[in-house]
Amino acid sequence: MNPSVDLAAPADDSRQRLEQLSAVARQLLDRARAAGADQCEVTCDEDAGLAVNVRLGEVETVEATRDRGVSMTVYFGKRKGSASTADLREDSLAATVAQACAIARHTEEDPAAGLADAALMAQVLREFDTWHPAPFDADRAIDIALACEAAGREVDARIGNSDGASMNANASLSVYANSHGLLGAERATSYSIGCALIAGEGEAMQRDGWYSVALAQGDLESPEAIGRRAARRTLERLDPRRLPTGQVPVLFAAEMARSLVGSFIGAVSGGALYRRASFLLDSAGTRVFPDWFAIEEDPFLPRGFRSAAFDAEGVTTRKSMLVEDGIVQRYVLGSYSARKLGLATTANAGGVHNLNVRANAGDLASMLRGMGTGLLVTELMGQGVNAITGDYSRGAAGFWVENGELAYPVDGITIAGNLKAMFAGIEAVGSDVDPRSHVRTGSILVGRMTVAGEG
User: Fold this and answer.
1) For 261, 281, 292, 295, which has the most beta carbons within 10 A of its beta carbon?
2) Which 3 state secondary structure label does DSSP give 182?
3) CATH of 4-235, one of 1.10.760.10, 3.40.30.10, 3.30.2290.10, 2.60.40.2000
4) Ranges for the Metalloprotease TldD/E central domain (predicted)?
5) Each residue of 344-389: pLDDT tens digit?
6) By three-state DSSP, how is residue 329 classified?
């Protein structure tokens, strides 16, 4: 048996499949209106994927998936009901509509319930170069994963073990439609290769890795380059030391820096705000970051991980600033949270789109030189962030930096502070953007944090 996932048929039929999902969506909307619903919306999804994992030159798992789902929400006045199914037969679709309507008739009214305003619906529906299908079978995926792991293990004799390597390929089709007349279709592919290696022996063992992810297979780093980078990162962590407790500058490597941006986004998101569960309540129009700092949301980035012409409610997306001159320009809202707050949706139902954090410094090497002495964080552990107070405390590992150069690896430490002070204390954002996320930021230098280690 040779599991495969046909991400690209000889003649790509994704548009025909999207039309089939669109027909299902139209049928469900018609059924809901016939049942008396005042408003309704439908999402139809189809996904296919192949995942391969290898370890120490042997295949561990091969998984081919194909999923399909339909979810719908109906509104009777301000009462809401939702139901879903994976079965597209007529009787199942009819039962799904009936179940959603029955739930809506028996729920309490919610003044904030309902579709987004009709005037906000997307009028121009376009794609952003996110569809790059390719035929994949298990044998090819296995070869890629094996080549990645082998390249890493061959770097140095101290690489004595492995947590394995993986190859993943996925394709997704999605249709969103509502009773305002909007029907939008989206399609996207994604590919990833990753490797994690182990160096040293006994209690001195260290683990690290690397991965590459892209919407087009040709944009991935080569399997061999990924394996070798995973090996170098693992070897660099050997013989770590502890640090004395104290306050020092902390430089978050780019892949760690995006977690700081994520904490900010969570604090200015509608759900946290209307529940009064955010340390950035009433922050719109106030300076939270240094006066040079900026974050821009760009839903229209070609091959962006979160590019879209409309949000999860069909609202037209737009390119806009979240932070400008260090000042919070707006919150992150869908229509429900906006109504709860007495504000307007920001086309962020379903989350933020691509975020660009403006750099004011050079690459990582220049950031290290600028810091001089301090801590470079390359790994974070735990979830020690209090969303209400902003208190921040997480396990960390990385490198001690002296005279702008890496001096030695460190682990077994905790970094702590308060996010409000950390945001205000950002001294630099590097140009070394990590492209593997919709949060596009370089390394971020925070001027002073508490590092808890020995003593």
Assistant:
1) 295
2) coil
3) 3.30.2290.10
4) 132-238
5) 999 999 999 999 999 999 999 999 999 999 999 999 998 889 999 9
6) coil
